[in-house]
Design a protein that fits this description.
Blueprint (H helix, E strand, L loop, with lengths): L2 H8 L6 H12 L12 H8 L3 H13 L3 E7 L6 E8 L19 H6 L54 H16 L6 H13 L4 H15 L10 H6 L14 H15 L3 H6 L2 H10 L4 H6 L5
Antiparallel strand pairs: 1-2
Length: about 300
């Protein structure tokens, strides 16, 4: 870790939380001597607690703002894609030497400063080959080795299509995602959670209802053992937000839920012992809907 790099990232207060977290994780891996920053994308996504698609969007933003530079790399013999090399803004004046860079160790910063008069190595619209190799199709599959339309030379395969910079729909979802992941009490598989949250919103679910329900579920499960708390992707898959009232509904909706839970306790239904948190059970006792003895008989912990 380079304290100089981390302090530089902390100063970028104008960033939104998502891109800021990605930048901090990159700076945490900065080597102060070699200036090396080249984590695997899967590792970076894990460290940021984001899906690879979300990390890619935030990397696009950081590069567009001039805070990082991405350099694609490949193995000189096998031609296998290597992890992307990231040059941080604080190293732009003296960029590091990069082994196995696709464009003969020439980054896009250097291309801008020392543009080849005859022909640039990378075309202005990113329709040419990145590494000066011919676009002759591969003999095995008949496809070009270099994408003609991908505007992100470093993008590794993801399930989502590339979106334009500043896409309002993407920015809206990123904000919802950041708020949901911060509120939900037990995050599971990040990619599945993001996929199901996006599907729910596209199907017409109210994002504010989902967020309010996630916070209410966290309050309900406070003090409960983690194994009894639903994973985020499963909660979204079974539309867990629907059993919580929408924001702005009268408190009578909460009372109806409490009455239903109390009835299940008195009936000795097995699900209440597994899913009702101690905090929720104590609330029912405080409301006078059930007694402590009834909770104990149903196996509900107070």
């Amino acid at each position: 870790m380079s304290h100089r790099a981390v302090n530089w990232a902390l100063d970028q207060r104008h960033l939104k939380p998502g891109p800021w977290i990605v930048l901090l994780q990159l700076c945490d891996r900065h080597n102060k001597d070699t200036k090396q920053v080249n984590p695997e994308q899967a590792t970076l996504a894990f460290d940021c607690n984001m899906s690879r698609a979300t990390v890619n969007r935030h990397l696009d933003e950081l590069e567009a703002m001039g805070l990082i530079q991405r350099v694609p790399r490949q193995h000189p013999v096998t031609k296998r894609q290597l992890s992307t090399f990231y040059i941080l803004g604080l190293d732009f004046d003296a960029p590091p030497q990069i082994e196995h860079a696709v464009s003969q160790n020439e980054t896009r910063i250097e291309q801008g400063q020392n543009e080849n008069i005859d022909q640039s190595r990378v075309s202005n619209c990113d329709t040419g080959a990145v590494s000066q190799k011919t676009q002759k199709p591969c003999l095995k599959n008949g496809k070009s080795r270099v994408s003609n339309c991908d505007t992100n030379h470093v993008r590794e395969p993801v399930r989502e299509p590339c979106v334009s910079q500043g896409d309002p729909h993407t920015q809206f979802f990123d904000e919802i995602w950041d708020r949901f992941s911060a509120a939900f009490p037990r995050m599971g598989n990040v990619e599945l959670t993001e996929e199901r949250l996006r599907s729910a919103i596209e199907a017409g679910a109210d994002p504010e209802h989902i967020l309010a329900a996630a916070r209410a579920y966290a309050d309900e499960q406070r003090g409960n053992k983690s194994q009894y708390i639903a994973f985020s992707e499963n909660w979204l898959d079974r539309k867990g937000w629907e059993r919580f009232p929408k924001p702005g509904r009268p408190a009578a909706d909460f009372t109806a839920v409490a009455v239903q839970r109390a009835r299940a306790i008195r009936a000795g239904q097995s699900w209440v012992a597994r899913h009702l948190s101690p905090a929720a059970a104590r609330d029912l006792v405080a409301r006078g809907l059930v007694t402590a003895d009834e909770c104990k008989a149903a196996g509900v912990t107070l």
